[in-house]
Structure formats: C-alpha cells, structure tokens
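Lab notes, practical 5.
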Amino acid sequence: MRLTVDPDAAAGDAVPIIAEGGEVGSLWSRRIDWCCRDHRLDLQILAAEELPLPEPEPSEPAEGAVGRIVQALAGSGAISILRNPAAAFGRDRISFADGLRLFAIGNEADEACWDAMLSLGQPVYGVRGILACDALRPHPASVLSALAYGLFTCEQGLRLALHEDRVGVAYECDRDDAVGTVIIRDGFEALRLTGRSGAYRDRGTEGYVRLVVRSGEDACSTQPRFIAPSVATR
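Output from the prediction step:
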C-alpha cells in the first residue's frame, strides 16, 4: 500500500496520512523552535500519539538540546526532523546533530550538511516535499518505521518507480526530459542519467549512493544506500 505524508501540511497537531483513496489516519506533530545559547534549533516531532516533551533551556547549546530531545523520544517510536540543519549547526558542526534521523532540505546549505553527515557514516535521511512509502497497513507506526529507516522517497511533483538491491539502483518515470543525478560521498555528482529510466551499479567505493531525478521544476529524491567497500581480489 502506497502512503504519503507531507510534514509541511500539518493541520494543528496532525499530519494526514494519505492513501490512494484519501486520508487514512494521521501522525501527531509538534514543532519545537528553541533559542539555544549559540543557535536557534527548529525541530518537528512526529509520533503515533501525543508525547510529553522537554522544556527549553536557553543556557544550553543546541547539541545539548538535541541530546535531551533524543533521550526523551527514545523507545517511543517517534522521530524528529531537524528543520534548519545549516542554521543550527552548519556543515562543519553537523556531527553535533547526532541522534536525529531526518534533515529537512530547504536549500543547498542544508543539503551540504546532509551529505557531510552521510559521509561520516551516519544514517540520516532527507526530507523535502511529499514523503512516499510502501506499507502493509495504513498505521502511523508503519509510516514512522519507514521514515526512521529511510524507506521512502521525496516527491516534488515527480513520482518514481524505484528498484533497489544489493548491487545497485534503477528507476523509471513518465517524463522524457528527466535527468537523474547520482550523488555519492561528500555530495560528489558521480553520474548523470537522461530519459524515462536510469540505472547505477555500485562500485564499492562510493560510501553511499542517492539519486535526485529532475524534470523541469519537478523532482524526486531517493534516500541514501550505504555501500560496503569492495574487497580487492588477486
């Protein structure tokens, strides 16, 4: 079953879960916008039901606030989106966001933070547009699990049929003018693919592989696949 959520479309404390036939449920959502000692921290919490959250401490640094929130959510199944990676930490300090699993990608600086975190081997997933996943049942827990493990794509007007396995990734779409970009360690663009379909076979040196497919103003982004290093044989 295909399910979608749009974190930006929160109505009050609810983010609708949408299936092909319409709304089938919702996630509880709470925005945390704290002015910490050093930087502003903007988080969005998504959960199956309402949770108690810590209070702000203006004297603590942003990484201390992140640690308290991660600890508060532990074991609940809830997940948090860092809405301002570049403003809160920046590329050089992004490792202090350890424990957060989702980064909102609003601009190139946020994307650079994401690639920096991925290059450290941290399983962090990018959020932009509508988040689409497959689930057996339309339950909030199923959606939260998909988000926590990066089993979703980000649709901004473009939808992909995605095929991933242990050796590579392939996709199909309905746009003749589509251009796919293969992005690997440190945000390096390894390959460009054109047309309605494309495929990339892992080489074992990438660190991670993610795709961004664009068609005009529309785009669809995949989540990173971490690549095990290839073993040289004699």
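Observations recorded by the TA: Residues 31 and 44 are 4 Å apart (CA to CA). The chain has four helices and 17 strands.
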